[in-house]
Amino acid sequence: MAYHFSAYVQILMIVINVIFVALRSWTRFTAKAPWQYADILVPLSFSFNLTLASLFLTMDISSGYTKTIPGRKMAAFWVPVVYAFANTLPKLAILDIYNHIFFHVRWAYRTIQVVTFILVGNAVAYIIATLCNCRPLAFTWDKSMKGQCGNTIKLYSMSSIPNIVTDVAIILIPIPIILKLQMSKRVKFGVLTTFLVGTIGLAASIARFAFFINIKKIKSSGGRLDISTTCEVTCYLISACVLHMRPLIDTLILRFKSTIRAASSYGSTNPKSTTKITAPGSGKRHTFQHTNESEGDLIEPLPEGDPGIYVLKTIAVHRTKQQEDV
After folding, report:
1. Among 153, 150, 80, 93, which residue's Cα sits nearest to residue 122?
2. 146-192 pLDDT per residue, tens
3. Among 122, 233, 249, 280, which has the highest number of CB atoms less than 10 A from its own CB?
4. PANTHER family annotated for this entry (predicted)?
5. Which domain holds residue 315?
């Protein structure tokens, strides 16, 4: 039996969730970072993401059978409830991280409080509306009994509007603060890129909203809705993880640059530039050997036996052999 494309996407999303949460946990552990509420919210979000993907897998696999499986309808009932938690928790984790970074900016702190209130309020209202949409409740998955349901499509589509609004707010909060910081454009770009990972989640949220609006016109939109929903919550969790993975990312970038530089300089006979400076009071001159041209790159290790001094800059200091004989 060939499974739907959505089933393979759910498996891929599970793998991505596991990778990013594991990397975040390893980074936090090795850095011995102080405890934050995000350290609880991220694992909770991870568990709800796995549950949501598992529910979609159950629905996709059971849809391949000719007979209707009762568990499929029950899974469909729990999807919006689990989605409310999977959608809200990673955003709360991001806002908690913002609180620790931008606590000194008053307007940002107030905005974070407002967005938090909207997120929690929307999640609670969404869960209550979902549970009360059909009367009796069992009519949601058992249509053999007498009952009625409200406009489910309208409920799901309208609940996406607060999600989009909060997504935009979360993306915009750090931008003006980072742009005012005294740092190079390259560093600003790197920091902004880290914070703007959530834009992918915003795009998925907008796509999900569009699917609900046009669900009557789109054939077999169920799979697309499953994919957009899982991608949305996965992107939120990735964003919450990446904000704590900056040390790991910087280390990987520096190692990559070091490898590229070592490969490009292999076999090169070009002499490195040096600068001579006379030490005050000693009358002795020292040679500063430049190991790279751009600020912030890794310093090449001095050769073994070289009496150099390792400096936390882009230069290495050592005395020349002629000066040692003086």
Report:
1. 80
2. 888 888 778 888 888 888 999 899 989 988 888 888 777 777 777 77
3. 233
4. INTEGRAL MEMBRANE PROTEIN-RELATED, PTH11-LIKE INTEGRAL MEMBRANE PROTEIN (AFU_ORTHOLOGUE AFUA_5G11245)
5. 271-324
Q: Is residue 23 part of a domain?
A: yes
- Cα–Cα distance, 139 to 136 (Å, whole number): 6
- Count, residues in the chain: 326
The angle subtended at Cα 246 by Cα 242 and Cα 247, nearest 5°, is 140
**Amino acid letter for position 39:** D
Specify the amino acid at residue 283.
G
Q: How many domains does the chain have?
A: 2
- How far apart are the C-alpha atoms of 232 and 91, rounded to whole Å? 11
Place of tokens 């949220």: 205
Range scoring the smallest mean pLDDT among 24-38, 188-202, 233-247, 258-272:
258-272
Judge whether 17 and 237 are in contact, CB under 8 Å.
Answer: yes
Asked if 95 and 49 sit in the same domain, the reply is: yes
Tell whether 261 is covered by a domain.
no
Give dist(CA 107, CA 233) in Å, integer: 27
How far apart CA 96 and CA 67 sit, in angstroms, is: 47
d(CA 30, CA 255): 18
* Residue 259 in domain: no
